[in-house]
Design a protein that fits this description.
Oligomer: single chain
Helix content: 25-40%
Order of helices and strands: EHEHEHEHEHEHHHHE
Largest sheet: 7 strands, parallel
Strand content: 5-15%
Mean pLDDT: 93
Number of helices: 9
Low-confidence stretches: none
Amino acid sequence: MTKHHINLSGKTVVITGGSGVLGRSMAMTLAHAGAHVAILSRTESSVQKIVDEIKDAGLNALGVSADVTQKASLEHAKTVINQVFGPCDILINAAGGNSPKATTTDEMFNASAVDNPEATSFFDLDETAINALINLNYTGTLLASQVFMKDMIGREGTSVINISSMSAYAPLTKIPAYSAAKAAVSNLTEWMAVHFAKEGIRVNAIAPGFFSTEQNRTLLWHPDGTPTPRSHKILSQTPMGRFGEPDELSGTLLWLADPKMSGFVTGLVVPVDGGFSAFSGV
């Protein structure tokens, strides 16, 4: 039996949306595996702290400004990365997010919320916010793939890892636009896996369960640090009874990134969710 040790030395990894809690954890994990990590964010300054932490550990990282919804911006970022680290071997599409303007106040339809300035009903969901969510989560994944996968053509050991969501399996209440966008990301993952299979480029996705991040902090926690009703409901449907820790994505990430460990794995969306997707609720 061949013994494996995950070693990504010499590999160039590009992470979009790398300034968040999960993006930072993924960047650190891949850097410690030996990769040259390029972290993309709308503003370079937002990832500089992460880049500095990685460099202080004697590892390789680069922060690059890019907007995943603008192809020209991504093309410019690619030029910078290629000059510093060389062509992209592994692309992590982690840019994404939700918007309060595309979130209903109630889980179930409530007629009293209609035309209530203090509430957001289904009929009040903001068209601009919905379009922005689709653009960020889905189109941003597609555009970044178009730009950086060009580096992968004709080269061995290359792959794309998209970040999907539990809401891709079944839409979560209150967030119809985000759920639809992440379902599209899972579908795109499968499509790209088939389309590029003969080229040897593997395309997979990770679907995180519930992790406490800055993005969902107000959804999960009251200002005094106590859990919200939404938190209680989530945990009641999570068999492991807790939120995930960012580093708990590391094993799945490294497995999918390493062609020696997952060379015959493509088109897979892997839930890392404490059993949430397996629980029927009874």
